[in-house]
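Figure 6 in text form: structure in, sequence out.
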């Protein structure tokens, strides 16, 4: 992988974003607000955000769950895929991130559909279950990678046959193939893949991506009919 190829990936992403997405005031304002607030630029790219949006629309999702909101960039993409009476709950541990996300979501006109819950996801998820809010039609997992196996388990608990589960950052520049890696994120991603592989309730694959966010990828799974 050379600097030139990385530049090429970014150029192709820009081309797709310009050609297929175009300018979008709410999304651009969200990225500007994130940057002004000092949030890290680790949101999905525009083509990736639209992919999540399209997947949710393709399956007619009404109720969605996101784990890891950051400033709400992917939240906006996902919420826009839901119908007027749809509901998206997004979980964010960092109070500052959650506050920026709230403002971004409100500016995008989506406050009525989106609920941002502040706190560690593993503390919030049992409450969501206790409130009987599930099952969710679509789950997007994009928080701390060490907890990916636990998030996958929760996604299953809060699912129904047909629920789609998408997990971001599962390739990590190719490090995912390193069985000897001591990196906690890689270990988390690999354990999640092992769970997926051994879980009869799921049918899954993973796709590598290159682009403005580098070399990474998504895992995609669907909850099988019983
Ligand atoms: C990669 S960013 C999310 C990016 C966002 N999905 C997007 O594309 O716009 C990961 C987020 O997960 C949050 N996070 C990390 N650990 C968490 C936890 N235990 N519970 C909930 N959120 C967590 C981080 O604070 C960060 O904002």
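Output sequence:
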């Amino acid at each position: 992988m050379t600097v030139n190829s990385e530049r090429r990936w970014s150029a192709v992403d820009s081309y797709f974003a310009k050609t297929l997405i175009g300018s979008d005031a709410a999304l651009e304002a969200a990225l500007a607000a994130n940057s002004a607030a000092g949030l890290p630029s680790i949101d999905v790219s525009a083509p990736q955000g639209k992919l999540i949006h399209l997947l949710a629309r393709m399956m007619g999702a009404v109720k969605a769950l996101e784990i890891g909101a950051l400033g709400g960039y992917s939240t906006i993409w996902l919420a826009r895929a839901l119908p007027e009476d749809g509901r998206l709950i997004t979980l964010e541990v960092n109070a500052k991130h959650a506050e920026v996300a709230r403002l971004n979501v409100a500016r995008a006109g989506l406050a009525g559909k989106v609920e941002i819950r502040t706190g560690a996801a593993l503390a919030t998820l049992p409450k969501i279950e206790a409130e009987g809010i599930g099952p969710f039609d679509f789950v997007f997992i994009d928080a701390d990678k060490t907890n990916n196996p636990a998030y996958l388990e929760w996604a299953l608990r809060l699912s129904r046959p047909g629920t789609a589960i998408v997990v971001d950052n599962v390739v990590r520049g190719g490090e995912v193939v390193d069985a000897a890696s001591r990196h906690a994120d890689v270990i988390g991603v690999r354990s999640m893949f092992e769970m997926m592989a051994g879980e009869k309730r799921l049918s899954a694959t993973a796709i590598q991506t290159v682009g403005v966010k580098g070399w990474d990828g998504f895992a995609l799974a669907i909850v099988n009919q019983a």
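Caption detail: The longest strand covers residues 202-211.
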